[in-house]
Amino acid sequence: MKFLRLITLFLILALALSACGKAQRSVTYRIDPSLRSLYEYLGGKNQLGAVISEVFPYNENTCQYTVNALLCIDPQENVFLYPLGVNLITSQPAAEESPASTSLVVGGIPVYEEFIPLYKQLSGASITGMPLARARMNYSRQRVEQYFENVGFYRNFNEASGKVKLLAYGAAACATLCTYTLSVGAAIDSSPIPETDRAFLTGLEKIDDTSIFGTPLTRAFLASDGMLEQVFQNAALYTTPGSSVIHLRPVPVIIGKPASPAGPKLFGNKEGMVFYAVDGKLGYHVPQLFDDFISAHGGTAISGMPIAEVSEDSPGVYRQCFENYCLLYTPASEPAQQLVLEALGSSYLAKISPADFNGETVVISPSTVRLRVEAQTTLLQPDHEQRIELMLNSQLDDQPMAGIQAQLVVTRPDGTTWSAEIPATLGNGKSSVNVPFLEHVPNASIMRYEVCLTGIIAEPVCAAGSYVQMKLP
User: What CATH number is attached to the domain comprising 392?
Assistant: First the structure.
């Protein structure tokens, strides 16, 4: 009967679907008439950013900074972008690489496939300059990036494939002279560019929306079976060294997610279900919106086949696990967070042996993340529950961090404790857990609580608070 109620719910859903401190003021300027044609040709403010300096003489040229570049005109009235990257970024010699991994190689250095459309839109090397190094995964800033002589390209891990922007070359070069509040996400790293973690770049760009995997928990490493592997918040990806074909480890199976035997087909499209046959006529019922999600994200080649029927594991939260990932559906959440992959990466890393993982984790520590906690009410009364919410953001760019789990410990006045696991944070960086009114404590007791992140954490990350528990007369 419970499964039939779920069928009814998803049918209804399918029908419905078919129907602190004061910030410094930024100072900006007008583009000089002599530079306006190039500025507008390259996309103006939308592409090059705001103009952040007056026009000034520089090396016999007349120049002006924008957030992302330095525009100049020489005495012969040739307008160009100045090669800021040469001084801002330490380049490295081009190493041998097969052009098969990309459709464009410039000066012996492959242009990251996802960046090619913008590279061509900007008229190629005549505007961007030559590439200074291959693309890399910048874990500290949570993005894919590639540096060229005149501009830099990047795409944040948590954004859809193809959403490419320019790095803030101009703001970096003019940092001491310009008054401009820079978006931290576009800031550059003015240090040598290491050769690191290129194994998954080509393969990932073939998947429409890699943000479904969450942010990386590890760097790429050589697993005990000889595969190059990388663990993300929601999945574990691997590839044969030298290949660009990405596969997913069967994480739900490895960590022991509950499975159920395949059964006969009982429902179909009229009930909002798609039947996945796995053994002759036996299989599993997949809600239509789950099937739509799978189809839009690489199909069963990425998800694997179902290992269980959909179930309501907690009130208002529906889960269905497939061979390679689990889907969570929460109708009450914001539309963008209603259907997501469950955060299983940390559990997978804790499960596999040291022989399987000899790599390096992405650092989560008090210096890289900001954890805040808040109690829903300062005074908890009987027959009510306290809601403890956590909010997790990166200290690098203040962006929310998804897929991180935590543990809550509430301490009674006598020192005994009550604890609970807090589900993984969602895309908005938030998660919460409910605490019951705890009996057998003095009236008007102060209940102190502490939330600590769990999983692959470099150093303890905790935050604390308190509330009063009282029985009113």
Answer: 2.60.40.1930
pLDDT in tens, the chain (473 residues): 566 666 666 665 555 554 443 445 678 999 999 999 999 999 999 999 999 999 999 888 999 999 999 999 999 999 999 999 887 765 444 443 333 356 788 988 888 888 999 999 999 999 999 998 888 777 667 788 899 999 999 988 777 778 899 999 998 888 778 888 776 678 876 544 443 355 566 566 666 666 788 777 777 777 878 788 888 889 999 888 767 788 899 999 999 999 999 999 999 888 899 999 999 999 999 999 999 999 988 899 899 999 999 999 888 899 999 999 999 999 988 887 889 999 898 889 888 876 676 666 666 778 778 899 999 999 999 989 999 999 998 776 677 777 678 899 999 999 899 999 888 787 678 889 999 999 889 998 999 999 998 866 656 889 999 999 988 87
Looking at the domain assignment, is residue 295 inside a domain? yes
Same domain, 464 and 323: no
Q: Which domain holds residue 452?
A: 369-469
How many angstroms separate the first and last alpha carbons of the chain?
44
Vertex 453 angle, CA 450 and 456, to 5°: 155
88 backbone dihedrals φ, ψ, rounded to 5°: -75, -35
CA-to-CA distance for 289 and 15, rounded, in angstroms?
11
Q: How far apart are CA 388 and CA 380, in angstroms?
A: 12
Q: Whole-structure pTM over 0.70, yes or no?
A: no
**Is 417 inside a domain boundary?**
yes
* 350: phi then psi, degrees, rounded to nearest 5: -70, -25
- Check if the beta carbon of residue 75 is closer than 8 Å to that of residue 63: no
Query: 53 and 130 share a domain?
Result: yes
For 197, phi then psi, to 5°, come to 55, 45
Q: Give the count of domains, the chain.
A: 3
The count of residues in the chain is 473
The single residue listed with the structure tokens 């990405």 is 246
Determine contact, residues 383/393, Cβ cutoff 8 Å. no
Place of tokens 């040229």: 61
**CB within 8 A of 7, min separation 6: which ones?**
267, 271, 272, 273, 285
Collapse the DSSP code of 438 into the 3-class scheme (helix H, G, I; strand E, B; otherwise coil) and give the result.
coil
C-beta neighbour count of 6 within 10 angstroms: 19
Q: Is 425 exposed, middle or buried (0-12, 13-18, 19+ CB in 10 A)?
A: buried
